[in-house]
Specification:
Radius of gyration: 33 Å
Number of helices: 16
Structural class: alpha+beta
Number of domains: 4
Strand order of the largest sheet: 8-9-12-11-10
Strand content: 15-25%
Number of strands: 12
Order of helices and strands: HHHHHHHHHHEEHEEHEHEEHEEHHEEE
Helix content: 40-55%
């Protein structure tokens, strides 16, 4: 074997190396890079190279093209010395096939299967190449950037909440994480976009008592609803002035002070606005060591009440405290592929179910509100409306709002 053939084999080896390392680095996720930093010595070097993808790719492509061209030149020289011009086309075709198999396809398939090992093992050599090829890389990147600007501004790859949610869905589909855990993590992500308005108890459903009500009477009135805390109003139910723990009223009654009015045992409530994200509300509850807040609208009137339980249920689902409570699912799949959906279901949950883009409507957070907005009137049973999110058919209403509806996604509508 002469020097030309040895040179060709060396070039093929380098071609395979550059192809493999290109695929290895481009297929690495940020999680794999973080894992490499902790497990292997070359992890930090891998991270250093991965932080400059333009420089890395340019170095690899320059190296790969140089060795492939050099292999072609050496092969051509060897073929002409042995057989002359007649065999030049056949040798060139054969070399192309060999480079394709052993210098491109096979190394890249191996790199996909062992990207962490190849990236960490070859990182020192690639670092040397980045130094050697630096002048060429600068020129290539400058010309490439000039051409790229002609076709628009490049987009930055950022890890968004939507990307994380998609990754969880893929992990769930692959069996890496079960549905319950995946749903809980997705719900935690949604706390930053879901507002208090989507989970609060609306004012028409709020149980409250007048500040002049006696503690004994309050105990009797709160017995059936079974609330642990309730707001207290002055004059009008919307004028909330305090908050009373049921146990405080019971203590007064058992201590012989049952005639004592609620105004003397109430505490100052925590007030929040309907557009406050649940993530911020959760942090506020922890900071203030509260579990109950009164929701006021922009005019200072009562909009509803929200509790820590409402926030927690957005993460883990419905919580049942007693045997008398019937399990309630907000979304139930029907035999025909449609869904029965409760009116208080947040729009964000439905958007994830259907894959549709959630509407950008600050004052519409629930399915009931979205249907009323789409109809532009008070919904009644039997109403049907088609929207970009799908088709809704109202099943029943209560107090002028949708209690339950049938939902068909855009794909099945």
């Amino acid at each position: 074997m002469n020097a030309s053939m040895i040179g060709v084999l060396v070039c093929l080896a380098f071609s395979a190396m550059f192809s493999a390392v290109e695929t290895a680095f481009t297929s690495l996720t940020m999680f794999q890079i973080e894992s490499l930093k902790k497990r292997k010595r070359g992890g930090r070097l891998v991270e250093r190279l991965a932080k400059k993808p333009d420089e890395l790719i340019s170095t690899i492509l320059i190296g790969n093209n140089v060795v492939n061209i050099l292999a072609s030149v050496l092969t051509t020289e060897w073929a002409m010395e042995r057989w002359g011009d007649a065999a030049l086309s056949a040798v060139t075709g054969g070399l192309t096939f060999v480079i394709l198999i052993f210098g491109e396809v096979t190394p890249k398939r191996l790199a996909i299967a062992h990207n962490e090992f190849i990236a960490s093992f070859l990182a020192p050599l690639i670092l040397v190449c980045t130094v050697l090829f630096k002048p060429f890389v600068v020129v290539v990147n400058a010309l490439s950037s000039l051409v790229t600007r002609l076709f628009g501004k490049p987009q930055k790859n950022e890890l968004s909440i939507e990307t994380m949610t998609q990754m969880l869905s893929i992990a769930e589909h692959m069996g890496i994480i079960d549905y319950a855990k995946s749903s809980m993590v997705k719900n935690v992500f949604r706390l930053g976009t879901t507002t208090v308005q989507a989970v609060m108890t609306h004012r028409i459903d709020v149980f409250s008592l007048d500040r002049r009500t006696s503690s004994e009477e309050a105990c009797r009135l709160v017995l059936e609803p079974g609330h642990s805390r309730f707001p207290v109003y002055d004059g009008e139910p919307e004028n909330i002035v305090g908050l009373v723990a049921t146990r405080a009223a019971v203590n007064e009654a058992l201590s012989g002070r049952g005639e004592r009015p609620l105004s003397e045992i109430m505490s100052e409530p925590l007030y929040v606005l309907p557009n406050k994200p649940l993530g911020e509300l959760f942090a506020l509850f922890r900071e203030r060591r509260e579990t109950f807040a009164v929701v006021l609208d922009e005019y200072g009137g009562l909009a509803g009440v929200v509790t820590m339980r409402d926030v927690v249920e957005e993460i883990v689902g419905e919580i049942y405290e007693g045997a008398g409570e019937e399990p309630r699912e907000r979304i139930r799949k029907r035999a025909d592929g449609s869904y029965t959906v409760s009116g208080d279901t947040p729009i964000s949950i439905l958007a994830e179910l259907s894959g549709a883009e959630p509407p950008n409507l600050p004052y519409v957070q629930t399915v009931a509100g979205y249907i009323a907005w789409a109809l532009e009137r008070i919904p009644v049973p039997g109403d049907q409306v088609s929207t970009p999110m799908g088709t809704f058919t109202v099943l029943n209403t209560q107090a002028n709002r949708v209690e339950e509806c049938v939902y068909r996604t855009p794909r099945s509508a």
